[in-house]
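Handout, page 2. Input:
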Amino acid sequence: MKRMIWYEWKRIWNSRLTQLAVIGCILFFAFSAWSNIRLIRETDKSGESVTGLAAVELMKEYQKEVTLDQETADKYTEEYLAYTQNPATSSDERDMMYLSEEMYVKWYLPNRQILRPIAGVYRTSEQPNASDREILSQNAGKDFYEARKERVQENLSYAVSTNQITPSEADWWNEKDNAVGEYVSGYNRAWWELVNATSLIMLIMMVVGIGTAPVFAGEYQTKCDSLLLGMRYGKNRLIMAKLASSFLFTTAAYWLALGIFAGIYLAALGADGWNLPVQSLYDDPSISYNLTAAQACGLILVMGYIMTLGFMGVVLLLSSLMKNPYGVIITTFLFLCVPLFLSLSRGGYLWKHFLALLPEKIADFSFSSYLVYTVGGVTVTWPAAAMIVNGVGAVILAGVAYMCFKRHQVNK
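Output:
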């Protein structure tokens, strides 16, 4: 059996198209990480703009770890408002946060990672265009965590009104949110980049589609299916070897590409901030997931891997049904692309929940989403449901592909 798996493994990798796809994917991931790092921009205290790794060092200097308790929220709010009211340190420029250029560079930029979440918590849905100065002046002295809870309730009410969740699921989220601790701000750029790179996982899915499309369809195309099925182990072990090699190829391609991608970011930007809460990755701390930045990143990587396995199951099924590998590739490409034009913000409750489970919808996932699934009184989050459905789906679809290839009528 091991020799069969090894043989099928080599058949996948010996394809020039597969080799080019994997190498191209890895190079694109490496280039994407490198170019994003080069584009990082920060302003030093002399007003000069710096980019790349120099900007990263400046961000590490600015963004010290700060626990945002009530005393800290009041301190920064009062200090900012005092500067905007003092003629010597204020201006009429909204882009400069109503501060003088000197104060904007020397005080606001080093402290913006603290001021943004404070303003984000106090900002209601009725004030989307209000300036931070206006928001903070209206809410100076207000309990920070009470305001945060109000934003959570506001977000849950909106999710219910748009058919994302039911009232009982909103109550579930409200209980889950109680476990979220104090907001801690600090430098976490590498984790921010990784958490916001979910759309790139689709590129790996394309590579998996190219690599696994010929597994069964290639045998039809070369007329070798009748020969293989007539062999001693052709209707059992050989098919199992094809499936096992497909799982191994998907695993290797996924973790190789994302391992290099994550490794570049962590090596260049550092792993600082791994222990900060996932809320620190967003300007609005009202997110209800109780995770650290590293846990959030790990969850997305595992979720992406299992959803890629689910996509592989679809490819294997199509490969067992279609007679040409290129037809499989084109069909799976359409399967990947078409749902991207279907928004999760539209449609009813069932439609939203079905659409979110498709493998390519990993690109739309965000920890700010309240989408959950309730079955038999048990409620699970979107990532958990997506992993269960795609993991089980990968096994079932691979099993169906096994039966389709085994029982198909040869020489047709």
